[in-house]
Amino acid sequence: MTNSQRAVRRIKIASVVTVFLALVGTALYFLLRPVATCFDGIQNQKEGGVDCGGSCSIVCAEVFAPEAFIIREAAFVPGNASFEYDALAKVHNQNGTIGASEIGYDFILRDAAGIEVGRVSGSDSILPQETKTLLAIGIKTSGVPATVEVSFRDATWQRFSGYQERPQLTLYQMRFNKISSGAFYGEALGTVRNDSTFDFRSVTVMVVLRDAAGKPIALNQTEVATLIPGDIRDFTLKFPKAFPGEVATVEAEAGTDFYHQDNFIQRYRSGNAQFQKLR
Asked: CA 273 to CA 169: how far, in whole Å?
């Protein structure tokens, strides 16, 4: 056997061994590889996302790309103590079908040099296409503010399907009276009526007192408990400290966090406790 024949033979043997090892490796891979599941943290088996959609029963969470909130008004007024202020923001959700069941926000007060002198945080909810008033009462500051900012964070978005009814809370007979004696400077009075089909465990009434130019001069809010459909309730908000300017307009808004069941009173129908729900 010549050297060239030996070389050809060695090549053939090496090729056979290589193919054999490849076949054995492939077989071991398919025998020993982990079985794809809906809990392996990998997007496989034609899943729509990681461990959701496709062959998995778990529905993939919708990824939202909502439009930013529009701040239609932001203002602050002196509070009831030195270096204490109240602030308001009118926020519009321009998304047509997306609301936030919870949205964190911060009121930030800055002095004339732009330095932060006070901050307060809170959270609320907002419906699609809703314009909502946010109030912050009693923001303590380290100086005199010149501007107020409102920022948002940590939104929990929810798409509405078949959404038809807003909670209709009607405010009327709003008025402001100065108090000539006693511990208070004045009071705002009014009536709230539940014109919806929902029962509410708690309703927040927010009042903005404005002067003739429409500028806010005093803010306050109160809670009204347990409003069933058709209920009418009077309320009064006290203002302990005098504020500059004369009240020309009493602006009021009523709202409730209806995204969460604990803000609804159970209804009993045929012996079964049920909650009103928005879909």
From this structure: 24
